[in-house]
Amino acid sequence: NCQNDAVVQNCSCDGNDDCDADTEYCNDGYLCIEGICNFSAEANPCPSNPCQVGVACDEAARACTPGSNPCDAVATTCDPTSCVPLNDSDFECAADPADDGITCDDELGCNGTSDFCLDGSCVAGGIPAAFCYSDNPCADETTCTENGFGLEPTCTPAADRVIGDDCSADFSCFGAGGTCQVDPSSAVELICIQSEDVCESNGICAQSTCSEDYALGSDSGIDCASVANAEDVSTLTCDDPTVTIAVADGKFTTRTYFDYSATCNPAGDVFQGMETRVYLSLGQAVTDATLTVTDVDAAFTGNMELLLFDSNPCIETNCIQRGTNTLTFSSADNSAIVVLDSTDALWPPATVTLELDCNL
């Protein structure tokens, strides 16, 4: 044992705690040097370093209160940074990126509120997240102006879209040459008509849906999904020969681009957009029966193709006859199936009325 003032301590020690001259926490202590208490070398229970400025000691809590991190001044949500001491007085702030996908705010309103972290930076959440964004590629263009101070941006009309404008630049789902055309269901609004079927379909009985993928903050691809159509068939009979088919009723639901092969006499051009199926319940064999388009929404000015199938209309090669606006046909069976389509870019119309004459 050895004595320092009135306190008796072991001269030998395993650590600085063995050399504490009293029971207080914050009045330093003494160092254990090479296994011997050195009462001339005081220990600091709460030492500071360049990355912890202003460390304090709390006697009541017998603990150290952390100081401030000088790198906090440059830290961001996406890069909190790490403070690295270089010596007793110098430090550096090292990059320490947060996980990709964490929500952040780039303090810009025009690019929306879906910002996220990517590689240590805060990036905008993609085109659909923009404040002035419209999911209609043919909507009039707008200019977004930041107003600052937490205020919403201002959307100002910049340019009017016109028929024939390209609308595929930011929307891969409309193909490489999509163009703006009048929406047949409104006769006023312009919509983007795709130039090609960017999603492969499994016949005219399947619907292919396309959605953009902006997961990385830009147009990075498309996502295709197939949806079976079970409710898109209308029925006509010789006794009940008239039917009106409406887009709003979900009758035009498929989305394919077939030429229906050379067996669909005559062979045709590529069809536009949606189709609808019509089941003709004839009840008996017919000769020179006619199916005619008798009325159509006024906004539609194109032609309709009536395609006769000898069997399953879900297979385009089963098409055997084709007529424009009117189809004259014979059938030895009690039924027939017709598909309505068009090569016109404004297809489909909001409504179309068909009339069957069985010529009995």
Q: What is this structure, in a nutshell?
A:
The chain is an all-beta fold and 360 residues long.
Write out key terms for the chains shown.
360 residues; mainly beta; five-stranded mixed beta sheet; four-stranded antiparallel beta sheet; 0% helix; 36% strand
Structure description:
With 360 residues, this protein is an all-beta fold. Helices cover 0% and strands 36% of the residues. It has no helices and 25 strands. The strands form ten sheets. Strands 17-19-24-21-22 form a five-stranded mixed beta sheet, with no helix packed on it. A four-stranded antiparallel beta sheet has the order 18-25-20-23, with no helix packed on it. The chain is elongated. It starts with a strand and ends with a strand. 24% of the residues are buried. Mean pLDDT is 78; it is low at 214-220.
Write the layout of secondary structure elements.
Layout: E1 2-4, E2 7-9, E3 29-33, E4 36-43, E5 56-58, E6 63-65, E7 82-85, E8 91-94, E9 116-118, E10 121-123, E11 141-145, E12 154-159, E13 179-182, E14 190-193, E15 206-212, E16 222-228, E17 233-237, E18 242-246, E19 276-281, E20 286-296, E21 305-309, E22 319-324, E23 326-331, E24 335-341, E25 351-357
Parallel strand pairs: 17-19
Antiparallel strand pairs: 1-2, 3-4, 5-6, 7-8, 9-10, 11-12, 13-14, 15-16, 18-25, 19-24, 20-23, 20-25, 21-22, 21-24
State the share of residues found in helices, binned by percent. Answer: under 10%
User: How big a fraction of the residues is strand?
Assistant: 35-45%
Q: Please tell me the overall pLDDT.
A: 78
Poorly predicted sequence stretches spanning 5 or more consecutive residues: 214-220
Main beta sheet: 5 strands, mixed
Apparent shape: elongated
Distance between the termini: 127 Å
Total count of strands: 25
